[in-house]
Design goal:
Layout (H helix, E strand, L loop, with lengths): L4 H34 L5 H5 L2 E2 L4 E2 L2 H32 L4 H14 L3 H15 L6 H26 L2 H9 L4 H30 L2 H6 L17 H11 L3 H33 L1
Length: 278
């Protein structure tokens, strides 16, 4: 029996709307659930006081500092590598087996489980390079994790810049490097920034890599060689050990709000970039 085309279209449309609505409801439920249990715990004292009694009391200030340090180190290391790789792929090479190998490697790296990257970082940075459980070890490991995201988003941003911009520069006698640094990259900057912002969100929410490489010290780190506990690791330990569920929910609320703000910023940058060249 053959369905009427209009009826089948309505059925498919209804199914898609239902699945979309279900996804949104799940997101809303998570946000409301965490907010109801976590926001009452979020006070200035909770945000700016030290951890006490293994997390049963006190606040999360050391975890905020550790998370910021880890994210900053990861961005400082991964951003130049990722953007430079994207520039090389787009501007200095044609499609060949070399570019295919680089893209394939980046895609494979993006698919590696975070627990494997954590183990790799532990063996290389903590043990072999003798950096110990530290902010530097954790940041370097996170930089490997976010590198594929930066490469792919930067590459797509550079590709979106019209070829006419490059041709006009070349016709005026401008060198390739000047064209890239003064025309291509500035116009692709919103798209590049989108990748960097998304990378920040992933770094903030990562647990396994940080647990293996940065450790779980309760003290506020003062140097790159100090161990520290990120917000995600703190939440994981509090919830797993059952030390303090109110503090765990409060930490989860801060994490959720941070990631939501980061995603909104990334979406705004992406919308601006798409609108500029559409």
């Amino acid at each position: 029996m053959r369905l009427d085309p209009l009826l089948s279209q309505r059925l498919i449309k209804s199914l898609l709307w239902s699945l979309t609505g279900l996804t949104i409801l799940v997101l809303i439920f998570i946000i409301v659930f965490v907010s109801v249990h976590g926001l009452p715990q979020v006070t200035p004292q909770f945000l700016f006081s030290e951890i006490r009694d293994m997390g049963r009391e006190g606040g999360i200030f050391p975890t905020i500092v550790t998370t910021a340090y880890l994210t900053l180190v990861a961005l400082v290391v991964a951003s130049p590598l990722g953007v430079a790789t994207a520039i090389y792929l787009v501007e200095y090479t044609r499609e060949s087996w070399i570019t295919k190998i680089i893209r394939f490697g980046a895609e494979c790296l993006a698919g590696v489980p975070s627990i494997i990257l954590g183990l790799f970082g532990f063996v290389l940075f903590v043990m072999k390079m003798q950096l110990g459980w530290s902010i530097l070890s954790g940041g370097l490991s996170l930089s490997i994790m976010i590198l594929p995201t930066i490469i792919r988003t930067s590459e797509e941003a550079l590709k979106a810049v019209p070829t006419d911009y490059r041709q006009v520069c070349y016709s005026l006698g401008v060198t390739k490097w000047q064209t890239i640094t003064r025309v291509v990259v500035p116009n692709a900057l919103p798209g590049i920034m989108t990748g960097l912002v998304l990378s920040i969100g992933r770094s903030i929410g990562e647990t396994a890599v940080v647990l293996f490489t940065a450790g779980a010290s309760l003290r506020t780190p003062t140097t790159l060689f100090d161990s520290g506990r990120s917000m995600a690791v703190h939440f994981y330990i509090l919830a797993r050990e059952g030390l303090s569920m109110p503090n765990a929910y409060g930490t989860a609320a801060i994490l959720m709000i941070s990631i939501l703000l980061i995603n909104v910023t990334a979406y705004s940058l992406m919308t601006r970039f798409i609108g500029k060249y559409s």
